Amino acid sequence: MKLMGKIDRIDAEAGNDGEARTKAILVDYKSGSVPSMTEMKRGLHFQMPLYLLALRDLLGDRFEVIGSAYYQVKSPHEIGLKSLLITKEDLRRFSGATAKNLFESPDELLAFLCEYANRAAQIHAQIQHGEFPPTTLGETAAKCEWCDYRRICRVDHQRMANIVSDV
Ligand code: SF4
């Protein structure tokens, strides 16, 4: 399965010239809303888990990619790292910070990432067999506003009715 994406930023630990791999965290800027950890843990947002796995594959020889975070850039009250995929210990050692809903161990984080990878592979296989099950998310959560296929999508019947009546 091939995926395309662009990672906004990689933060690497400073001053690590020893033999150990430099620790790094990937960061994705979001000017809109950020997926909550609850949604991420429900398996609804593939971007960060797949970015994290891809980056580990790409930089694994030189960097130990320990986690990821969204950096929300919204109003002055809504700026900062959100929905981190990292263990409590790694975040504390990397930045001295703490956050809610972090992972207890690298194994727990890896199992979480692997579940996403397996699910992505399953969906990919379904698509290759012509199966496109409709989303169970609402229009906002599914980000239909940004979808290239929204005009032909069978999920939103009301929009289809509007298009037909406009012709
Ligand atoms: S418009 Fe349809 S295909 Fe596009 S994101 Fe929404 S539900 Fe999915």
Assign the structural class, choosing from mainly alpha, mainly beta, alpha/beta, alpha+beta, or little secondary structure.
alpha+beta
Number of helices: 5
Low-confidence stretches: none
Biggest β-sheet description: 4 strands, mixed
Return Rg in Å. 19 Å
Give the strand order, joined by hyphens, for the main sheet: 1-2-3-4
* Whole-number mean pLDDT: 86
The tally of domains stands at 2
Give a count of the beta strands, DSSP E runs of length 2 or more: 4
Order of helical and strand elements: EEHHEEHHH
Gap from first CA to last CA = 39 Å
Which overall shape is indicated by the principal axes computed on the Cα atoms?
Answer: globular
The percentage of residues in β strands lies in 15-25%
* Helix percentage: 25-40%
Bound small molecules, by name, code or SMILES, are:
iron/sulfur cluster
Pfam family, one: PDDEXK_1
Domain PD-(D/E)XK endonuclease-like: 2-154
Organism: Candidatus Moduliflexus flocculans
Protein name: Nuclease subunit B homolog
